[in-house]
Amino acid sequence: MSQGPQGSQIPENEEEDYQFSGPLLVSKLQEAGIHPNDIKKLSDAGLNTVESVAFTPKKHLVTIKGISELKADKILAEAQKIVPLGFQSATEVHARRSELVHITTGSKQLDALLGGGIETGAITELFAVTCQLPVSMGGGEGKCLYIDTEGTFRPVRLLAVAERYGLNGEEVLDNVAYARAYNADHQNALLTNASALMSESRFCLLIVDSCTALYRTDFSGRGELSSRQTHLGKFLRTLQRLADEFGIAVVVTNQVMSSPDAAAGPYAGNEKKPIGGNIMAHASTTRLQLKKSRGNTRSCKIYDSPCLPEMETHFAILASGIGDPEEEV
C-alpha cells in the first residue's frame, strides 16, 4: 500500500498509476464509466483533477449544471476509489512531511527561521503595514502563479533575481503566470483558471498579493462584514485545496489595521493586527509579521505556526531580491 493525498492509502492495483502521474487529470474518470460530457462539466467548474473531485462535497457538485444527485453519487464514488480518503498512522504522516519541499527565500537567516524555507502544501501569510514579495524561482523546480490585487507587480524585479542566480531572464519571465485581479469575485474566479494551468504544467508556487485588499474595498462597513468573511473564507478554502491537490506552496500577503485597546488607557499605542479576523487566522498555516528596521533591513517574526517556535530574525531587501543583512541588527 502507498499514500495518496493527505496520506490516504492507495490499493496496490492503483498505486503505480497514481505514483507515476501525481495529481490525476479529471479525464481519468472516463475509464471508470463517467460520461465525457459530465467530465467536461466538472472541468468547466474548475475541477480539473480527480483529487479536486474527491475533495468536493456532494452539495457543491449538484450545483453544477447537468450534474444530478445520482450522477454526483457515482462521480464521487469513482473518484474516491482512485483517491481514497481515510485514516493513517502518525508514522506515515511524519514520513510524508519529512519529504516536503521548501522553497528558499534567498536569505539563509529567514530560511532557518522557517525551518528550511517556504513550505509546500501549505499557506504562508506575510503581513505588515506595507509588504512586497520578490519572487524567487529557486528550490521548487516549477513555475509560479502571481495574482496581483494592487498593481504592484514589477517584472524587472524578476530579471534582477534571475541575474543573481545565473538564470536566463526570458525563461524566468515565461515561467511566471501573472494575472491582475480587479474585484473580489474576479480574484476568486482566477483560482479556477489557476487550477486549469496547474493541471497542464508543473507549478510550485502561488502568490496572492494582497489577499485582503479587494475585500476591504468591495465590502465596506459592518453591515457587509458577514458577507465579506464568508466570501474570504471560500477563497482561502480554495487556496488550501489547491495546495493539497498540487503540492504547491501558497504565499499570501496581508494588510494590517490598528486595534486600540481601551483597557490600556489613552496613552497606549495601537496594536497592529492582520486583516481578516479568525477566518484568515485559521486558514494560514504559518503567519509571519514583517517590520521595517534600519535601511533596507526588515525583521520577520513567527506570529503563529503549528510547528515553528516564536522567533524573530532579520533579512535585507536587495536589488537582486531577498538576502541576509551585511551586519547584525
UniProtKB/TrEMBL annotation:
PROSITE patterns, per the entry: RECA_2, RECA_3
A GO molecular function annotation here is: DNA strand exchange activity
Q: Which intervals hold domain RecA family profile?
A: 99-256, 265-327
Domain of life per record: Eukaryota
GO biological process terms, semicolon-separated = chromosome organization involved in meiotic cell cycle; DNA recombinase assembly; DNA strand invasion; mitotic recombination; mitotic recombination-dependent replication fork processing; reciprocal meiotic recombination
Q: Which NCBIfam families does this chain map to?
A: PRK04301.1, recomb_RAD51
Protein name, UniProt field: DNA repair protein RAD51 homolog
